[in-house]
Design brief:
heterodimer, A: about 350 residues, alpha+beta, Phosphorylase Kinase, domain 1, Aminoglycoside 3'-phosphotransferase, Chain: A, domain 2, five-stranded antiparallel beta sheet, two-stranded antiparallel sheet, about 40% helix, about 15% strand, B: about 140 residues
Chain lengths: ~350, ~140
């Protein structure tokens, strides 16, 4: 179902859906929205038999912060729809001919807000309620048995004792591939992580991979409507998600609360109740430093693509501001961990 | 390497000069303009002391390499200088010095030289602090 070059996206989408559903389809109010840097995101209404349905199109970009597999992301939505708040996945096209690049379509959740990490106190008086939801949902994701989910078809579980190494190998390789200027701090962090591995998790869980403030939609009254951006989903140690969500980069300028919601202690207690798991402090420390390394890898890729690719400002901003701030967080944490006895 | 102020401003110009597609109008266009504004602020912060920070970091690297390098097998008699102080020259020197620092830190760790290890970790904190760019919070989009 290849589309003629130069045809407007709305017309292509209309034709694609009409063929797929064998019905007359009108696409209305198609508009691109800011929605993550790894895919182009559009909202639109698909009208079939006069009935409109709100939808979201996620299309692969020409350049991206991270190389991700849209099939896995689609299966993540499919796995968790009905378990935690996520949009309903509807259509996946891995060929990409119809819309020039691979894409998927999901139902749209209306009436929600997604704050920028640059916003101060984004949840206001609802911060506690959002925090309870945020870490309760994350605990429920960790509690799920991956073998019972559609994701089992495409994700191989690592051995528990190898979770850390698989994650570190992956992101170190990204740094080595994309680095254009030597980065001694992240090199030192990687060596330290390898010398001080964390205890293995009690079980293998689904790891969202980018679970943080800014990647969920809330209703402005303390309720989370949808967990978004599952493109880095994988199987591993659930504490990885917790540590990433605790990273100071996502705290909205407030070091006293994680994700600008509640205290870290309260977040852990909520997560432990929901997941049925216990957070080992040594594991959390390891995954916190790992989070800064993973962030460094993502920002290294974004800087490379910005300089060598399309000059996308999202990539340029992330490759500068986020990179510098994350490196500071990494250097502070690295020094503290060595003071606490890391070899 | 993180983008330079020149890279960031060039991208802002390209963004503003590229005609938006019909489907980019509305929320995405507004977000794009906010990002152009924020990136201009970032470029201004970076440009204000880009050379000074590089000169300071390069000097700190030369000092630690000169002091500790020879004991760990790293010759410190031909360390690169800052040349004409252009950003490109400073960055080229910085890259060479950082490569030597990585070697020095690995050597210190292998030799269990804890004093040097701590000194390098403190230098890392200083380097990251010098380079960090502090943007003020942004009001949520209405």
């Amino acid at each position: 179902m290849n589309a003629p070059a130069g045809e407007a996206l709305g017309a292509r989408l209309e034709r694609y859906l009409a063929t797929l559903w064998n019905a007359e389809v009108r696409v209305r109010d198609l508009a691109r929205i800011p929605g993550g840097a790894s895919r182009e995101t559009y909202r639109f209404d698909a009208e079939v038999d006069g009935k409109p349905r709100g939808m979201i199109l996620r299309r692969d970009p020409t350049g991206s912060l991270i190389d991700t597999n849209r099939h896995i992301e689609f299966l993540a939505y499919k796995s968790f729809h009905g378990i935690v708040p996520v949009p309903e996945p509807l259509v996946l096209d891995t060929e990409g001919g119809a819309l020039e690049r691979p894409f998927f379509i999901m139902s749209r959740i209306d009436g929600g807000q997604v704050p920028s990490v640059m916003n101060l106190d984004p949840y206001g008086q609802n911060a506690r309620a959002i925090g309870e939801e945020l870490f309760g949902i994350l605990g429920r994701i960790a509690r799920c048995d991956p073998a019972t989910l559609p994701l089992r078809d495409c994700l191989q579980p690592p051995a528990p004792q190898l979770c850390w190494r698989a994650a570190l190998d992956e992101w170190q390789a990204v740094i080595e591939r994309d680095e254009r200027h030597p980065q001694p701090i992240v090199r030192a962090a990687i060596r330290r992580l390898r010398r001080n591995p964390p205890p293995p998790p009690a079980k293998i869980s689904v790891v969202h991979g980018d679970y943080r403030s800014g990647n969920f939609m809330h209703d402005g009254r303390g309720k989370i409507l949808g967990v978004l951006d599952w493109e880095m989903v994988h199987l591993g140690d659930a504490v990885e998600d917790l540590a990433w969500c605790f990273d100071l980069l996502w705290n909205h300028f407030d070091d006293s609360r994680v994700a600008s919601t509640i205290s870290e202690k309260d977040a852990i207690a909520i997560w432990e109740r929901a997941s049925g798991l216990t957070v080992d402090p040594a594991a959390l420390k390891w995954w916190k430093l790992f989070s800064t390394v993973k962030g460094c890898a993502i920002w290294t890729t974004s800087a490379r693509e910005f300089r060598e690719g399309g000059h996308d400002l999202v990539l340029g901003f992330a490759g500068t501001y986020s990179a510098r701030r994350h490196e500071r967080i990494m250097a502070d944490l690295l020094e503290r961990l060595v003071e606490e006895g890391w070899s | 390497m993180t983008p330079t102020a020149q890279d960031l401003l060039s991208a802002c110009i390209m963004t503003l000069a590229t005609p938006p597609r019909p489907e980019d109008a509305g929320l995405f266009a507004a977000a794009r303009l906010r990002l152009v504004a924020l990136t201009n602020k970032l470029a201004a912060l970076e440009a204000a002391d880009a050379a000074a920070i590089r000169v300071r970091e390069n000097a700190a690297l030369r000092t630690i390499l000169a002091e500790a390098g020879p004991a760990h097998g790293i010759a410190a008699d031909k360390l690169p200088g800052d040349g004409d102080y252009s950003i490109a020259t400073l960055d080229a020197a910085n890259a060479a010095l950082r490569r030597l620092l990585i070697r020095l830190h690995e050597a210190a760790e292998q030799a269990s030289d804890r004093a040097l290890d701590r000194k390098i970790l403190k230098l890392y904190r200083d380097m990251a602090g010098w380079r960090e760019l502090h943007l003020p919070p942004v009001k949520p989009a209405s």
